[in-house]
Amino acid sequence: MIRLEMLSENGEVVPLFYDQHTSRLLDKDGFKAVDYTNNPMYDPEPSQRRPFIAVDYDQPGRKVREVRKLKIQLGLGCNKSCSYCLQAIQVQKAAATSTRDASEFLANIDGWIVNPEGMEKVELWGGEPLLYWKKIEILAPALITKFPNAQFSIITNGELLTREIVDQLKAWNFSLTISHDGPGQAVRGDDPFEDPHKFAMIQYAQKTFHPRFSFNAVLTPKSHDVNAIIDWFHDYFPGCNVGFEGVVHSYASDPASIFSIEQLAQFSDTLSRQLADGSALRSPAIMDKLRRSVNSFVNEQSSKTLFQKCGMDMPEYLAVDLKGNVMTCQNVGANGNHKIGHVSDFENIALNTSKHWSKRPECQSCPVLQLCQGACMYQGGDNWTHSCNAEFFYNLAFFRAALFILTGRWLVGFSGDIVRPKLKKDRDVEVR
Ligand code: SF4
Ligand code: SF4
């Protein structure tokens, strides 16, 4: 049990006790601290969710042919060089693919996917996916026919948009996201908002795709004031959908991705207040994350059903390239240790590059486990420690705000048997 110090309006600090594995909140006498039965989110008969699979390097996860989410990596090439890019260290490891591979990919797909009606999402990924437009023109019409119930989406940096591309993606019924860090864009290089032609295309895309359009920002050491980021986009596009890809992870120990602990504490405190006063909820993605945080308490969500947040440990989520290589996820290349199999030998695909959160003592003991779900499953060493620290403070803001909504009290401290990771600077940084 984790002891939470909760400050009341009258200045009194009252302890509550929280179990991160059952999401139960108890008072000092062991009784339920809050009666949720009148909460609109309360579900008296929650649907049974299946248990997680404890994937580890020596306990590989499997994939199933009934794919529900298909992430197709078109290539890892990009026309930008964002300083914190997690794919940058993988570019040389991507298998080179051609438009011919795209045609062969389509010709073979019936051989390895069953139940195409069950496909829920198809995502086309780069690098920068619009660099691979010719492949998209081959793939998209066929995949739309093949997977009639799937939602199709693409995330681009927006630099290569043209009217024709926007119109075609719209005709194929894609949703469109532009990755852009708003006031923090400088760490990603030139800002397309400052180029009149590129900005006009972004305007056209926003108008064409609304409401299935969002700008997605990454929270970084240089730019992590959620309200400032929302305001920045709203100045250009009043009321537009501002999403957040979350807090930056560290993949190459680059300074652009590493917060200091002091910075994180301040960021967490500011975000908690922006959540509690509602100002950050102008972002639908932030609103949704807070709603899920509250829900974990109200429906006493068990950790036994928690997969990783990105879902790539799930058997039905598959990342492939156009050669049919299966990878840990869409962000890594198949010519390194992240190739976990091939669609032609489906039963032998083995996710042996990653660690489920239940295999990490830090996550097992973590107060924000239910909200974070373990950061990146394939990271290790100091990179994982940096990412974990960032996730810890980011999720602590939602944890605090959810507690405030449910109890009217403000979390001012916590204690318990909590294992936090430590930097191992004297060891080689492990990047699996
Ligand atoms: S914050 Fe760190 S320890 Fe906690 S669940 Fe996330 S990755 Fe695990
Ligand atoms: S394993 Fe998940 S969290 Fe890690 S890089 Fe891939 S998609 Fe992102």
Which fold name is given in CATH as the topology of the domain at 69-348?
A: TIM Barrel
- SSE-based structural type: alpha/beta
Number of helices: 10
Mean pLDDT: 95
Number of DSSP strand runs = 13
Strand order of the largest sheet: 9-8-7-6-5-4-10-11-12
Q: Can you list the ligands bound to this structure?
A: iron/sulfur cluster
| CATH architectural category of the domain at 69-348 | Alpha-Beta Barrel
Question: In the CATH hierarchy, what is the superfamily of the domain at 69-348?
Answer: Aldolase class I
For the terminal residues, how far apart are their CA atoms?
Answer: 33 Å
**Mind summarizing the main beta sheet?**
9 strands, mixed
Topology:
Layout: E1 2-7, E2 13-19, E3 24-26, E4 69-73, H1 99-108, E5 121-125, H2 133-146, E6 151-156, H3 163-171, E7 174-179, H4 196-209, E8 213-219, H5 226-236, E9 242-247, H6 261-276, H7 284-298, E10 317-321, E11 325-327, E12 339-342, H8 361-364, H9 369-372, H10 381-407, E13 410-415
Parallel strand pairs: 4-5, 4-10, 5-6, 6-7, 7-8, 8-9
Antiparallel strand pairs: 1-2, 1-13, 2-3, 10-11, 11-12
Helix pairs in contact: 1-2, 3-4, 6-10, 7-10
The structure holds iron/sulfur cluster (2 copies).
